[in-house]
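Lecture notes, unit on protein representations.

Consider one protein chain, 78 amino acids long.
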Amino acid sequence: MTIADLKPGQTARIQSVDTRLPGVVRLMVLGLVEGADICFKHAAIGGDPLEVSVFGTSISIRKEQARQFQLFGTGAHG
């Protein structure tokens, strides 16, 4: 499962990151790193970009880049 597979309100922990796609390392600098807990907020009209929250900050991420972040299990955001 990747960030791109999350539904609004779901939370997950990043398990691994594939850094081969351009821009992914920049997202890691913003906090999307292995072990970080994220919450999927919502997607723009048309489904791209996606908005996630990490360390209390909202980040917009393209779906293509979101697929580079493998996740552990998901839960409901509370």
